[in-house]
Amino acid sequence: MDRISSELRELLTTIYRTIPVKKGTFLFQEGEKADDIYYIQSGKIQISKTNMDGQELTLRICSQGDLIGELTLFCPGARYMLTAKVLEDGTVSAIRRETLETELANNPKLAIEFMKWMSLHFRKTQTKFRDLILHGKKGALYSTLIRLCNSYGVMKEDGILIDVPLTNQELANFCGTAREVVNRMLGDLRKKGVISVEKGKIHVHDLQYLRNEIACEGCPPELCSIE
Questions:
Q1: Cyclic nucleotide-binding domain location, by residue (predicted)?
Q2: Which domains does the chain have, with CATH numbers?
Q3: pTM for this one?
């Protein structure tokens, strides 16, 4: 997983204030002034982008040990470029952006650790957009299912259970497409026996089929995840 290094985590836990967060609320929204960076102590937070038509694209789900709001660092007059919605009650640490900038500027070792972490996130985002651009809506859904298996998969005798409940609309948000399109593609996969759905959870019976359909390059799990 792409959790931050122990050195950077130690720094973050010495310069924060703790904030409880509730499911359904927003930690921050796109366009708001960016004063803080957040380190997740517990809970889950969805990071998304909304286009001019109001369509939402979910970029990742963050949980304990993740840093969010990081894109605003070292940007004068920064505003949040993405929206952070709380999916599960928890606690976050809020770090003043200017404080973290000063600490990183004065500590080259920590700055390098942060750059490595940022580089990993950029690579993950690039692979997601690659699948969407090269393989369209099908590629977006299939790669999302593969990433969900890597992040939340539980091995079963007949495949992999994605042990997190997701609505078709939530899946559509990951793919940047309409719920109806996802409904149809999931229906096709069920008919082929590739997946089944029970109590809102997807069971992937043929992961290799999904990989073959998008010419999966076998990226390491730290790149091919939903987090």
A1: 1-104
A2: 6-106 (2.60.120.10), 128-223 (1.10.10.10)
A3: 0.74
